[in-house]
Amino acid sequence: MGKTIIDKIWEKHVVHQEEGKPDLIYIDLHLVHEVTSPQAFSGLRMKNRKVRKPERTFATMDHNVPTVNRNKIDDPVALNQMTTLEKNCLEFGIPLAGMDSPEQGIVHVIGPELGLTQPGMTIVCGDSHTSTHGAFGAIAFGIGTSEVEHVLATQTLWQTKPKALNIEINGQLRKGVTAKDVILYILSQNGVNFGQGYVIEYSGEVIKKMTMEERMTICNMSIEGGARAGLVSPDETTFSYLEGRKHAPKGREFEKAIQNWSELASDKDAVFDKVISVDATKITPMVSWGTNPSMTSSVRERIPLLEDCNSKIEQKSLENALAYMGLEAGQKIADIEIQHVFIGSCTNSRLEDLRQAAEMVKGKNIHPKVRALVVPGSQQIKRQAEQEGLDQIFQMAGFEWRESGCSMCLSMNNDIVPSGEHCASTSNRNFEGRQGSGARTHLVSPVMAAAAAIYGRFVDVSELVEAEVI
Ligand SMILES: CC(C)[C@H](C(=O)O)[C@@H](O)C(=O)O
Ligand code: SF4
């Protein structure tokens, strides 16, 4: 019987196995950020322990960092988390891309960008969107703070082997439909629990044709479907992305690595515990209208009616979501007006995302009632975008151009959506209060966010692209 990529990576990493207990697995890369690490380091200090492999650990600051005026941090909790991370990294010998580093950025953006993230690895971070790194053919997942301490101390983790779910996406995507629409569509069809207990492998011709950036967007939101992780079997696209990156192997070592990485892909006859098939031709630009990422519809549709619900519980959650969002059942998605636009987050803040959004806004002005922000995922992306003149395109259209960080994705800094106002956001979560108390989030692709900034509401970007309006 063939093996899945999940079987192959898992087998290579088991350090200890015992019937009826989780496995002890070796961790190749441990990423650290300022929010979930302070207690873990305190724990080490109290037990007088060292970090087992500082060279397999890498830290950055992203959640709390200001995106304007880097030196002005008003919130004492934020400031404390950042200075604590600095002290901890210094004391325990961990490399840190701090706030002033040219490598600073969102942890899930800089791991791949620096070539730290590689195929076949086990990767953890005290952060749920660690699934992003799975795009490289790695088993990458979020862990809690006590597990962060365990990994720091031992470079291993107790884990039960997850089941394997294959999501095959075949057919041709229409113009203006992006990776973000694909994952939002999958969530809208399957809900927020379908992935529980699984690692998802995304496959099929659509994934095969995707760039690494697009694959990262999809893997990033695996967690929103309840999955432990999401991944893609590595191929030529993966290898050429990694070539020449700072921490990727070089020369002969790179050739050897490619040989090993090429063997990781799931075997043709691999058996998955579950398979979901997705017809790409059915996907249109998507917009979330509710308070979890599965409460999403096509921009061409209306918000569901109460009578469309399958159960009383579903009806209640629809009612609650619409009350929070200030929307009506049956309302046209294209009629929802927005006051804020956020282009950023570990889902959609990479160069390709910014290029797509810039193409939409080029030569236009944002709607007078809209405030729009572009927050690049890393300093490196910010510099590249500036070299291409994207910052100018955005600023001329009326966008604010910021420093890198998580920013308005969860509003732990000053980038907040005021209560009752609507935000078209390229992030991954639309939970109540996520972008500020009472804030109303709509999850969309970068090109949809850009269009919403111009029109002040959601438009069918597929039609715009086909009619060559952009
Ligand atoms: C702060 C952190 C623990 C959290 C996560 O784990 O996902 C954050 O990154 C988020 O996106 O909500
Ligand atoms: S960008 Fe958003 S989702 Fe990603 S790590 Fe930061 S807060 Fe979490």
TrEMBL record:
<keyword id="KW-0100">Branched-chain amino acid biosynthesis</keyword>
<protein>
    <recommendedName>
        <fullName>3-isopropylmalate dehydratase large subunit</fullName>
        <ecNumber>4.2.1.33</ecNumber>
    </recommendedName>
</protein>
<feature type="domain" description="Aconitase/3-isopropylmalate dehydratase large subunit alpha/beta/alpha">
    <location>
        <begin position="7"/>
        <end position="456"/>
    </location>
</feature>
<comment type="similarity">
    <text>Belongs to the aconitase/IPM isomerase family. LeuC type 1 subfamily.</text>
</comment>
<keyword id="KW-0004">4Fe-4S</keyword>
<keyword id="KW-0456">Lyase</keyword>
<keyword id="KW-0408">Iron</keyword>
<keyword id="KW-0411">Iron-sulfur</keyword>
<keyword id="KW-0432">Leucine biosynthesis</keyword>
<dbReference type="InterPro" id="IPR036008">
    <property type="entry name" value="Aconitase_4Fe-4S_dom"/>
</dbReference>
<keyword id="KW-0479">Metal-binding</keyword>
<dbReference type="InterPro" id="IPR001030">
    <property type="entry name" value="Acoase/IPM_deHydtase_lsu_aba"/>
</dbReference>
<feature type="binding site">
    <location>
        <position position="406"/>
    </location>
    <ligand>
        <name>[4Fe-4S] cluster</name>
    </ligand>
</feature>
<dbReference type="InterPro" id="IPR004430">
    <property type="entry name" value="3-IsopropMal_deHydase_lsu"/>
</dbReference>
<feature type="binding site">
    <location>
        <position position="409"/>
    </location>
    <ligand>
        <name>[4Fe-4S] cluster</name>
    </ligand>
</feature>
<dbReference type="GO" id="GO:0003861">
    <property type="term" value="F:3-isopropylmalate dehydratase activity"/>
</dbReference>
<dbReference type="InterPro" id="IPR018136">
    <property type="entry name" value="Aconitase_4Fe-4S_BS"/>
</dbReference>
<comment type="subunit">
    <text>Heterodimer of LeuC and LeuD.</text>
</comment>
<dbReference type="Pfam" id="PF00330">
    <property type="entry name" value="Aconitase"/>
</dbReference>
<dbReference type="InterPro" id="IPR015931">
    <property type="entry name" value="Acnase/IPM_dHydase_lsu_aba_1/3"/>
</dbReference>
<comment type="function">
    <text>Catalyzes the isomerization between 2-isopropylmalate and 3-isopropylmalate, via the formation of 2-isopropylmaleate.</text>
</comment>
<dbReference type="InterPro" id="IPR050067">
    <property type="entry name" value="IPM_dehydratase_rel_enz"/>
</dbReference>
<comment type="pathway">
    <text>Amino-acid biosynthesis; L-leucine biosynthesis; L-leucine from 3-methyl-2-oxobutanoate: step 2/4.</text>
</comment>
<keyword id="KW-0028">Amino-acid biosynthesis</keyword>
<feature type="binding site">
    <location>
        <position position="346"/>
    </location>
    <ligand>
        <name>[4Fe-4S] cluster</name>
    </ligand>
</feature>
<dbReference type="InterPro" id="IPR033941">
    <property type="entry name" value="IPMI_cat"/>
</dbReference>
